[in-house]
Amino acid sequence: MDTMLLAIPLLPLLSSLALVLLQPGKRTTAILGVGSVMLSAILVVGLQLLLWQQTRFVETASFGTWLTTGRLEIGLGLYLDALSLVMISVITGVGALIHLFSASYMRDDPDYSRFFAYLNLFVAAMLILVLADNLLLLYLGWEGVGLCSYLLIGFWYKVPANNAAANKAFLMTRIGDTALMLGLFLLFYRFNSLNIAEIQTAATELLGAGATGEPLLGLSCLLLFAGAVGKSAQLPLQSWLPDAMAGPTPVSALIHAATMVTAGVYLVARNYPLFELAPAVLLLIATIGCLTLLLGAGSALVQTDLKRVLAYSTMSQLGYMFLALGIGAPATAIFHLMTHAFFKALLFLAAGSLIYSLQHQQNILKMGGLWNKQPLLLVAFGAGCAALASLPMTSGFFSKEMILEKTAESGHPLLWLAAVTGAFITALYSARLFYLIFFGRQQTQLSHDLPGSMTWVLLILTALALLGGIEPRGLSVLLPGSIATPEAQLGPLQHWLPLLLPLLGIGLAWWLFSTGAFTRPSGPRLTPWVLFLRGGWGMDTLYLRLFVDPFVRLSHLNRHDVIDKGYGLLAGTTCALHRLAGRLQTGQLRGYAASIILFCLAGIAWGILG
Amino acid sequence: MILLWLILLPLMGGALAWYAERFDARLPAWIALVSLLSCLGLLLPEVLADPAAGLRYGLWLQDVAWEWIPRFNIQLHLALDNISLLLVLLTLLMGLVALSSAWEEIVEYKGFFYFNFLWSLAGILGVFLAMDMLLFFLFWEVMLVPMYFLIAIWGHENRRYAAIKFFLFTQAGGLLMLLSIIALVLVHYQQTGLLSFDYQRLLAAPITSASARWICLGFILAFLVKLPAFPFHSWLPDAHTQAPTPASVILAAVLLKTGGYGLLRFVLPLFPSASHYFAPLMLTLAVIGIVYGAVMAFSQTDMKRLVAYSSVSHMGFVLLGCFSFNLLALQGVMLQMLAHGVSTSALFVLVGMVQHRLHTRDLNKLGGLWQCLPRLSAMGLFFAIAALGMPGLGNFVAEFLVLLGGFEQHAGFSILAASGLVLGAIYCLRMISQSFWGQLLLPRAAGALASTGPDSQTPPSGTLAAAAGTSAIPADLNAREAMTLAMMALALLGLGLHPQPLLSELNAVLSALLEAAS
To answer: What's the whole-model pTM score?
Structure first.
């Protein structure tokens, strides 16, 4: 079982290495790239079968030591428990499907092997992230996925906008990552270890002793959360995610929807015992989650670019996960992470297929009337949007309902209100997206038909998006005391409103759509608001004014190095003095004679007077 | 004896290379190669030996001494411990890298070039091995003068200015160090009645007089100039930028490390209380250097200057670690010297290759290199990513250890220094996106690429001479270049993923050093 565990991240890593070094032809590339992740997925299925009956299992394996010096002991160890098993199942499962999809989707790209090299490296890094047994190895995976995300956003490197988006994504997440690293320092000096299990044990003991609210621990939790905020695009480090859509669509599906952006959720869930020691930080997490989910939903409502709608909705759904973490329901958060991975990957891949067959048209206002043209896409989008809007009996319904119930139970009415409002807006924009694409007047001709493998991937994901949330109790073993049946203390309003609001949202969307409110330009009174929302609540402009511009200006102002000017001044003064003294050297005898007499006189005078 | 040969071989090789030029212009380079390889061959037994069994003289692997000037008790004393072993290895390996980059770039006065090249390497090796203060000073000067010639003769546009600046800065520091050495020996003489320039004797009885701080300051200043630390860094961008690629490689890879080495070897153990006294100031300078260097790097348009300023930022971590008085930080310092040596010289080599092919290193004129030089660009991407501290590569481990070690006592400085990780990413990403990515800007290369059709992403392999021609697409890496870069990439991966052997070897000697310093 050790070998199986080690092979899971190693296979994509080796395949990535082979693709970089050998640069094989397209056929071999596809076989290597897709095959390695498929094999990993099969190994994960094998692990699940082996561990089927067990609930509290821990498997470990190690690649060897990494850094051991003084009291620092860090190995390249892997750690598999129920939580990481769920994560690797999602990563390799959804990952394999998306790889399969990409094999057809990217077929015409000249940089085919580079694409799969990056994508495989990403899967390897993500697997290391979730399997790491210590926080530094987790950090390695954490930075690794960030690097791959950067490389893949900028995959079409000839377009400067793509490079800018890639840089923005890397830098904004790097800010969070650096905070995370400082958090690791604090934890190391507090617990004398960076091993996740050891820290958890110590934290559980502290919790048992009732020692909550220690400022140092609060601070380290805050720093860990700052890392999560960057990676998972939450306020205030959220604005990179919409721009990250510059990458190829399968990348958006894998990295910027299903896996990497959920790393922050995983980080908090993984260290949950620690966070329980800092209730104030948990409340902050819930608040940030709520704010982000409203921000994302509000912006998704007015976007015209198909992928940006999905990006903002991802941000918003991640907000729900953080809300769940904050109110003490980590297993629910992971449940939503899983269902979200299914339906959002489906939506992105369906969007990719649509863009593929519409000759790279991404503007949803220019689509329409496609309902009888591509029945497969209609089904796929329908299932994805329904799950996103959490219509009853879809996967998103189960997980989001659970989050709303938990929020209601947690006794924070404001958070609950925000979450419910968010659910309403979510339904509204999901329905808007669906109607705008499939109903109304057809404006763009479809060109390609979808290749078979893409069709199959879409069908499998449709099934997962619809049915993937039926049995959440398997997840209840993840973290104790989390998923339980809804309790009776919920009032009728709290119980029925979340069920009704999505339906209301869809109805409202239909009414607005049929009156043409979505397609016609907004009136002068609304335009500034629409623009404000569309631009992500003005955060980009704010950051540009507040940080980027001053930095660039200051740095440009000093590009010749003021310190060097100081030394230049020294050199200049020396030269000036040299010229001054040089003037005395006239070559005229009378000048010299005069100065001799003058200095003799001065000498005599000094002798007499002094 | 090995140690003496380590220094003599390059010295003799240099003289021979100069003389051999009159027979064949290709000989000097081969002579340089042979002398460097034979030095490596000499060291091989030490590298392969069991680390514990190798310590024949306390913590020293090798220790030899001859009388030199008996009247003042000055000896030709050389010794090797694990710190110097690693730095000597770095010197020789990076010497090979520099040689590889000189192979085709240097066409004029080859004999004299390789003479200077080998003599400056010999000086650096001497600095790492000398255990007598005056001998140390002698080697300090030996590495300086040939380097001056390397920059002044084979450099770029503004070479004379840069060479003189480099010389003056280092010489000023060297002078202060000489004064400090004499003062140190005299104070030691007053204190113990023993006139000795020997490092190990001086170490046995640290001076206690009130002047210790001033003497210490003299040493510190000399090493800070070399490191270089803010505000003594301003010679470095000019020297690096104007130097020919092989000289840039030696400067970045090893010459700067003599500053860090000096701090570790002399300042910390010889002046424990004085270095504690100066620690807050040094930590401040380190943090300013990290941030300032990174911000300066961002604003540069000359690619080589950008890399040069990034050195200022990275070497700030060395200074930070030295004055953290912490084992983890010291381990980090050693790793940082090795990793920075490799990654930065790789970047200099790459810039040299770009300049050799496209005759510019202006970031505003470059762009889209990936389209015509995919392998070179991929390598550039790798080393830029290494420089910004990607985990799994050497620089990350080093910076992590320095910051973690420093955090224990001076959390504030570590936090401020950690901002260097974000700023480092900013300039590295700027360099990547402005040179390798984007549209192909150079009209000549773009035209050539277009004329061969959009499908041929990889240009046909050709000789460099053909690439220097008027309308050809610049050729991608040739075998020698690819091998050089691949070796360096492997070294960084090794440092990043399996630094354990180095850490274990350094543990004892750094612990002893730390004990002496506290």
So the answer is: 0.91
